[in-house]
Specification:
The protein is mostly helical. The protein contains 20 helices and 7 strands. The chain has 4 domains: 77 residues; 142 residues, no CATH class; 126 residues, no CATH class; 222 residues, Intergrase catalytic core (hpI Integrase, Chain A).
């Protein structure tokens, strides 16, 4: 598809309906820069939004160019060795960066929100998988560290840390410091893993603020020594994160920082202290959920809204929502500590409220009775219309994602987002086996992690239900997406719209409760695998889990034939769906 230059900004281009940032690499760094050009999707089809995004992207890309110039200067005069102090400091930076990345994942809502709530995309992260992958990775690193072995991963990490913004050091290829640095990073990885596992158990483990190396400190953005204003640094943070965040995520974080400034004022970074964090938390503790939409509070600033809500006796937001907003603010301060010497200790550290309920207990498989109720609902057996899909009628919407998405999830174990974003071309046939290729090959596709890419054979029951016929019909219509009637939400995720519809289905059947949601179908698949005698390793491969232990680091995974044999054995005992077969009507 041809890329066309668009007026309004020199780096704004359009490919089809989507807008892109595109910039040539400056001549002075072309020889060593890792890309031929800086081109990436702005993840929007709206021109005005694209203009806003491309301006931020251009600032970030120019910063990358400057960082690469500093790296080139360091390469021209590589160090023969690092001091013990430098190695220890780099390991501390690495440890903090791992915990910061972990905190960002948790801020996305992994512990804060119920599956299926508006604005929540639980398919991005799953707590149990995250914990299992962490345990496997830390265990493997301990194994190597105990035996004095340094694999290529940590040698590559050492090179990466040396190139970080604010570090920009270079070591001679034969420097004796490579091994001690890689060992120090291994140790930091193990410490960070232990901290993240403590977070998994509900312990409060703050991300440490680590100063840059003294010789590589970032200069203050202010001549008076007080440092830049919070509002200026916040804009820089949002501009950087917006390159990878969904629009809704960027908006949520931007609004939280604006509210933080409203409560405690816009001051230089070094003027903030713990008291500011407590003041912000105090306002949140009086603030209702969705307060901007409540008539008595509309048009008020956050602090005034909190005061009025408290006087009117309006119930405050839940502890989970409060922690989410505290986490948004805390993430900014963690980032600022890495980029500015003037940054104080994180004012939000330790301020989250204790929540007894653990995320891993929040979802159960659907019971057999619940599954029977779901697949006897009007949307499967006959509804009034596509608009009135909850009311009985004569229309069976076999061309709709409302019909197919739950069935596919039940017989593949795929996540909601993975099913909704499928293309017609993702359903393939090789060696006589029909299968679904779950991948991220498309601007509108997202996967939780690289391990989520996989091939899942199509269960015989899906064939009997007419799934292959649906695929052929969409192919004949020239549709790119397998379920074109499932719209994308404003946050860039298909699941944000569909999750509300599925929640409405459960509510209409009167089977919704705190521990079930669409993701329960994934747990049903796991139980069916166990009850059908399918090995855990094969089940993990079908679901896109990371393989445990050393086996996950070698080989290409299971053959399609092996996976197909397992799928053909899979049985949801007691669940009969022959009333949905095409010839049953």
């Amino acid at each position: 598809m041809k890329t066309v230059k668009v007026t309004g900004h020199p780096r704004l281009y359009r490919r089809g309906a989507r807008y892109y940032h595109r910039a040539a690499i400056p001549q002075d760094i072309q020889a060593s820069y890792p890309k031929a050009e800086e081109t990436f999707s702005l993840k929007t089809s709206d021109y005005q939004e694209a203009l806003r995004c491309v301006r931020k992207a251009a600032v970030e890309v120019d910063r990358k160019f400057d960082q690469h110039r500093r790296w080139m200067a360091a390469q021209a005069q590589p160090l023969d060795a690092l001091t013990d102090e430098q190695i220890e400091h780099l390991a501390s930076l690495y440890h903090a960066s791992l915990l910061d990345a972990d905190e960002e994942i948790r801020m996305e809502g992994i512990f804060e929100e119920e599956p299926g709530e508006p604005g929540t995309d639980w398919e991005r992260w799953d707590f149990d998988e995250y914990a299992e992958e962490l345990e496997d990775s830390v265990g493997h690193t301990r194994h190597l560290y105990a035996r004095g072995r340094v694999d290529t991963f940590f040698r590559d990490e050492a090179e990466d840390v040396l190139s970080w913004d604010g570090v920009e050091l270079a070591l001679s290829p034969d420097s004796p410091s490579w091994r001690p640095l890689a060992r120090a990073l291994q140790a930091a990885y193990i410490r960070a893993g232990k901290d993240m596992q403590s977070r998994n158990e509900g312990e409060i483990v703050p991300t440490p603020a680590v100063d840059k190396l003294p010789s590589q400190a970032i200069a203050s953005a202010s001549d008076d020594g007080q440092g830049p204003l919070l509002s200026a640094v916040a804009k820089e943070w949002i501009a950087e994160k917006s390159l990878s965040w969904a629009q809704k995520t960027s908006n949520d974080h931007r609004t939280t920082l604006d509210n933080f400034i409203t409560v405690v004022g816009d001051k230089p970074l070094d003027a903030y202290a713990k008291a500011d964090g407590r003041a912000f938390k105090s306002v949140l503790m009086k603030l209702p959920s969705n307060w901007t939409k409540q008539k008595p509070l509309q048009g008020l600033a956050i602090d005034k809204a909190a005061e009025r809500a408290d006087k009117l006796g309006i119930a405050p937001m839940s502890g989970k929502n409060m922690n989410k907003l505290i986490g948004y603010a805390a993430a900014f301060w963690n980032w600022a500590a890495k980029h500015y010497d003037e940054c104080p200790p994180n004012p939000m550290n330790g301020l989250k409220v204790a929540i007894k309920k653990r995320a891993r207990d929040e979802r159960d498989p659907f019971t057999l009775e619940e599954l029977r109720a779901i697949f006897r609902a009007p949307v499967f057996t006959g509804c009034k219309s596509l608009h009135h899909w909850r009311q009985p009628g004569t229309l069976i919407p076999r061309d709709s994602g409302m019909y197919w998405v739950p069935l596919i999830a039940l017989f593949t174990g795929a996540r909601m987002g993975e099913v909704l974003q499928l293309y017609v071309s993702d359903v393939k046939r090789e060696h006589g086996i029909d299968f679904i290729d779950i991948n991220s090959d498309g601007d509108d596709k997202r996967l939780k992690n690289p391990n989520s890419e996989r091939l899942t054979p199509i269960h015989p029951e899906l064939r009997r239900l007419g799934f292959i016929d649906h695929v052929q019909k969409m192919r004949q219509r020239g549709s790119q997406r397998l379920f074109p009637d499932m719209p994308m939400g404003n946050d860039g995720y298909y699941s944000s719209v569909y999750s509300k519809r599925f929640r409405a289905l459960l509510d209409s059947l009167k089977i919704k409760h705190d521990k079930n949601a669409f993701h329960s179908l994934r747990h049903n698949f796991e139980d069916a695998c166990r009850n059908s005698g399918i090995d855990k390793e094969v089940m993990d491969a079908l679901q896109g889990h990371t393989e445990s232990g050393m086996s996950g680091r070698y080989g290409n995974g299971y053959e399609l034939r092996t996976l197909n044999d397992a799928i053909c054995r899979l049985e949801h005992r007691g669940l009969v769906l022959n009333h949905l077969y095409p010839d049953a009507h």
